[in-house]
Amino acid sequence: MAFPQTRMRRLRATAGLRGLVRETDLRAGQLVLPLFVGESTPAQPSRQPIATMPGVERLSVAAAVEEAAEAAALGIAAVMLFGVPAEKDEHGSGAWDEDGVVQLATHAIKQALPELLVIGDVCLCEYTTHGHCGVLRADGAVDNDATLELLGRTAVSQARAGADLVAPSDMMDGRVAAIREELDGEGFSETPILAYSAKFASAFYGPFREAADSAPAFGDRRGYQMDPANGREAVREALLDVREGADMVMVKPALAYGDLIREIKRATRLPVAAYNVSGEYAMVKAAAAAGYLDERAAVLEILTSLRRAGADTIVTYHAKDAARWLAEQS
Ligand code: PBG
Q1: Is 199 a catalytic residue?
Q2: Contact 202, 228 (CB under 8 A)
């Protein structure tokens, strides 16, 4: 039946009716807050603003615990930790250092807040002098197979520090299987892997690279991250990660990739996370600061639409604000 018998507006007339038929929910418990943890020295304040990401700071370990406590109090599910080490080297050895910033922060957060989940980002780019996500061959290309062992070590060191999940974001082939094997061999068979399966070579990571000081010193990441034009390939990547033992898969960035959130969810049947990345955050913050849009309404619309696309979990720098707004609504 069509108009005039069918009137779509009938169920939109009041807040009660709209609530009755709302298809998608958004809860703080679905959100993950990324944190940047740096070495604290007497010269470095414990919270340093990041110019390209208003409202986000580089934190000392102690400040990261404070931030995590705030997240936990707001009902946020997890924090995801990125390290900004004082010193870097060719191989990124800070990534698997037992006393590395992420390991120390993980330990401190788990001690203070045992219920809050801690997710370790497994990658080398924040720890290498050249800023690439793996070790380099003589010709300057990233050596896939030589990197796998280092990623495995990094994941184990994070699990040992108490990480509840590990999330490889490097895009090397075979890393999920390599990490699974290392974890199992070291007694961490219960630690889930959240694989950044479909991670694109995106312009939207710009602000993050300033925050984490991880911009590549030469070249770009197109030799290992995906071409934004490719959707079928993204599904293949996700299916390969499933075969290698991924427990959850991620699509990143989020806003321009809703089609793939949906397709990958359908193809893998795994829980899917979407990473609402730094550039997506920065756009909203800049537009809001200029008075071009209503930040609260825009953020809740964005996060709800990622859930509608099929994301079970959303990694977002808006997590604390969103959790606060959601609490006010209910
Ligand atoms: C790499 C990594 C990046 C992000 C998360 N993990 C940057 C990159 O690949 O260059 C980006 C996240 C964001 O932009 O918010 N370890």
Answers
A1: yes
A2: yes
